[in-house]
Amino acid sequence: MHELAVTQGIVEMIVDRVRDRRVLAVNLAIGQISGVAPHAIRFCFDLVAAGTVVEGARLHIDTPIGRARCRSCGLDDLVVEAPIPLCGCGSADLEVTSGDELVVTSVEVAV
Ligand SMILES: [Zn+2]
């Protein structure tokens, strides 16, 4: 399961950064065209966090919409929903500007 590995990577990265401090909340941004399902991450999170300093942390997930710029006609606010997006001009030469990210935006730790 792809999301399990992704969640493990996220939790390991956080554990590594916060050392022994207790994590209260984790904020993620999972772009809508990142190929990762937020509900699956949520499902895996408690499982993976168990027994670590991340256990019991609140998980907040933002899902930024996919956006791209067309290299052919220069349109720069295309909303991307399909896995292989096309510009209105017919071009598939698009540069994704947002929505394909999977990042930990912030982590709240106990002081
Ligand atoms: Zn175009």
From TrEMBL:
<feature type="binding site">
    <location>
        <position position="2"/>
    </location>
    <ligand>
        <name>Ni(2+)</name>
    </ligand>
</feature>
<dbReference type="GO" id="GO:0016151">
    <property type="term" value="F:nickel cation binding"/>
</dbReference>
<dbReference type="Pfam" id="PF01155">
    <property type="entry name" value="HypA"/>
</dbReference>
<keyword id="KW-0479">Metal-binding</keyword>
<dbReference type="InterPro" id="IPR000688">
    <property type="entry name" value="HypA/HybF"/>
</dbReference>
<feature type="binding site">
    <location>
        <position position="89"/>
    </location>
    <ligand>
        <name>Zn(2+)</name>
    </ligand>
</feature>
<dbReference type="GO" id="GO:0008270">
    <property type="term" value="F:zinc ion binding"/>
</dbReference>
<keyword id="KW-0862">Zinc</keyword>
<feature type="binding site">
    <location>
        <position position="73"/>
    </location>
    <ligand>
        <name>Zn(2+)</name>
    </ligand>
</feature>
<comment type="function">
    <text>Involved in the maturation of [NiFe] hydrogenases. Required for nickel insertion into the metal center of the hydrogenase.</text>
</comment>
<comment type="similarity">
    <text>Belongs to the HypA/HybF family.</text>
</comment>
<feature type="binding site">
    <location>
        <position position="70"/>
    </location>
    <ligand>
        <name>Zn(2+)</name>
    </ligand>
</feature>
<protein>
    <recommendedName>
        <fullName>Hydrogenase maturation factor HypA</fullName>
    </recommendedName>
</protein>
<feature type="binding site">
    <location>
        <position position="87"/>
    </location>
    <ligand>
        <name>Zn(2+)</name>
    </ligand>
</feature>
<dbReference type="GO" id="GO:0051604">
    <property type="term" value="P:protein maturation"/>
</dbReference>
<dbReference type="InterPro" id="IPR020538">
    <property type="entry name" value="Hydgase_Ni_incorp_HypA/HybF_CS"/>
</dbReference>
<keyword id="KW-0533">Nickel</keyword>
